[in-house]
Design a protein that fits this description.
With about 260 residues, the chain is an alpha/beta fold. It has 9 helices and 10 strands. It has one domain: TIM Barrel (Alpha-Beta Barrel), CATH 3.20.20.100. Strand 5, helix 3 and strand 6 form a beta-alpha-beta unit.
Length: about 260
């Protein structure tokens, strides 16, 4: 794994280490430019933004380079497949690389898993993933054969994944780890929350902090504009943080956590 590219755990998928989410309305042109620069983990998830969908359709000729993620929040087994197929029709694609089950903080019920397995058997999804805020769930589920990717919260404020997740994953065939909320919902960018005398982090700093941890394969970004997309891409060009910058980010994160 380099700072720019990684193999996403036992999936074998080659990914850019910066992922891109549709949530905040990044323009289609910015998505396509990011793809040209190696950002191929494309997450059409909780908000299926039309501009993001247009970009994916425009990139369909290079589908083999894309790692498409489609999320379902459904708690009804009968709606998981409906949600996925509806998304695929909108994108004019025949499968997703990753079907992500959104925000489970307890084990996924057998009825949901069975529905996902059927979708995988039909070729509509290649790999299954789950996102969680309950950190112990990821190591618990990583040992079975259903989930190959885990989305977990990790940033300078919330670092307990370093204790509760990363060291407890199976060493032989580790799952892919994707982090979210790198800016801690922009709290790390807020001068009012940063202690006096400390430099205020940028989004670029937040992405670099996350990507500097070797357990993280992909750090999701959620830009709302082309300018924010450029700031996210700058993290890849600047590379990993040295020790003194990591210490600064931890100090800022600890101060925000205490508040």
């Amino acid at each position: 794994m380099s700072f720019e590219r990684a193999v996403l755990g036992r999936t074998g998928l080659e990914v850019g280490r910066l992922g891109l989410a549709a949530t905040y309305g990044v323009p289609a042109a910015a998505v396509e430019q990011a793809f040209e620069e190696g950002v191929n983990y494309l997450y059409w998830g909780s908000r299926r933004n039309a501009e993001f969908g247009r970009a994916i359709r425009n990139l369909a000729a290079r589908r083999d380079r894309m790692v498409l993620v489609i999320q379902s929040y459904s708690r009804l087994a009968s709606l998981v497949g409906w949600s996925l197929e509806r998304a695929l029709r909108a994108l004019r694609l025949d499968h997703t690389d990753v079907l992500l089950l959104g925000m489970w903080n307890h084990p996924v019920p057998p009825r949901i898993l069975d529905a996902c397995r059927r979708l995988r058997e039909r070729g509509l999804a290649r790999f299954l993933a789950v996102s969680t805020h309950y950190r112990p769930l990821a190591p618990q589920l990583a040992g079975n054969g259903d989930f190959d990717i885990f989305h977990v919260r990790y940033n300078a404020v919330h670092r307990r994944a370093e204790r509760d997740v990363f060291p407890k994953l199976p060493a032989g065939r580790p799952p892919g780890i994707v982090s979210f909320t790198a800016t801690n919902w922009r709290q790390l960018l807020d001068p009012r929350r940063v202690p006096k005398g400390e430099k205020v982090p940028t989004a670029t700093d937040c992405y670099r902090f996350v990507l500097s941890h070797p357990a993280v394969h992909v750090c999701l970004s959620g830009p709302a504009s082309a300018e924010q997309m450029r700031g996210a891409l700058a993290a890849l060009r600047q590379g990993p943080m040295p020790a003194e910058e990591l210490a600064w980010m931890r100090r800022v994160g600890d101060a925000i956590y205490r508040k």
